[in-house]
Amino acid sequence: MDHTFVKAINDGSFFRFFYDETNAGEESSAKTGLRIERHANREILLVVGGATSFILNGEYYQACPGSVFFIDHWVPHKLAYLPEETDFMHIWIHLHKGKLFAALFHVEDGMKSGRRDVVLFPSEIYCLLNKRWESMKKSQKNESAKQEYQRNMVQLLCSEMALSEAIGAKNTPSNNEIIESVQNYIDINYGRNSTIAELEKFSGYNRYYLMRLFKAQTGLTILQYINQVRRRITRDALGRNISQKEIAYQLGFSSPAAFWLWKKRNL
C-alpha cells in the first residue's frame, strides 16, 4: 500500500478540516463535464493528497489534503473527477445497507486510469459509524460537539484501516474474498467503470476465469449482478423524483437515451 496513505491513517492530526451539507463554501461556477449525483447511501471523502475541487449541496470547496467531507443520504455532490484532476489520493468511505467499505482512489503523474483498493470493515463498525453520524446531526447547533463527533468518526475509520493494512499485508486473499471484493467494487461504483476489462484489472484475474468464478460463487453473471445493483439504485432515485438524466450518469450510461432503453428492458 502507498506510503502516503499509511502515513495519513496513522497520523491522528492529519485529517483536520471537516465539512458537511451545513457548511458554507464558495459559489460554484459551472464547469464543462461537471455532474452531480445523490443516492440513499452515506459517504465520507478523506483527502490524502493533491488538490481537486468538490461540490457538496451546491457549495464549492477546495479539496486539499486533510479535508473530510461527510455526505448524508440524498445530499447532492460531485460525480466523478474532471479530466484535469490527474494527481491526487482520496479515500472514499461507503455505507451501503449494512456494509462499510473504504476505497482508495489514487491518480499519480497524470495517469488517469487510477487505482482502487477496497477494504471491507466489520459490521459493528458500520453500526457505530451510523450512530455517531446521527449524534452529529443532533449537534448541528453546537459546532464544537459536532466537530468532536466528526473527529471521532475519522479516527475510528483510520484505526480500522491501519489494522486492516497491517493484517492484509501478511495475508493472501482467497478466491472467495476476491469475488466479494469485485461485488463490493460494483456496489460502490453503482455499476460505473465495471466493464469486464476494469474488473479484470481490479481483481488481477484473467477475465474468463473471473467470470466463471463469479458465477459459481454468486449464482449470477457479472452483468446480471450489475443490473441488480442498477435496478435498486434506479428505484430508489425515481422514488425521490430524481431526473433520468442524473440517474443515467450516476449509473455510468453514456446518455439518458441509453439509460431509457436499459430501464425499458430491465424494470
Q: From N to C, what is the helix and strand string?
A: HEEEEEEEEEEEHHHHHHHH
Helix percentage: 40-55%
Radius of gyration, in angstroms, nearest whole number: 18 Å
Strand order, largest beta sheet = 1-7-4-9-10-11
Number of domains: 2
Features:
6-stranded mixed sheet, 22% strand, 3-stranded antiparallel sheet, 9 helices, alpha+beta, Arc Repressor Mutant, subunit A, 11 strands, 267 residues
Give the SSE map.
Blueprint: H1 3-10, E1 17-19, E2 26-27, E3 35-37, E4 42-50, E5 52-56, E6 59-63, E7 67-71, E8 77-79, E9 88-96, E10 99-107, E11 116-120, H2 123-138, H3 143-168, H4 175-189, H5 196-203, H6 207-218, H7 222-239, H8 244-250, H9 256-266
Parallel strand pairs: 1-7
Antiparallel strand pairs: 2-6, 3-8, 4-7, 4-9, 5-6, 9-10, 10-11
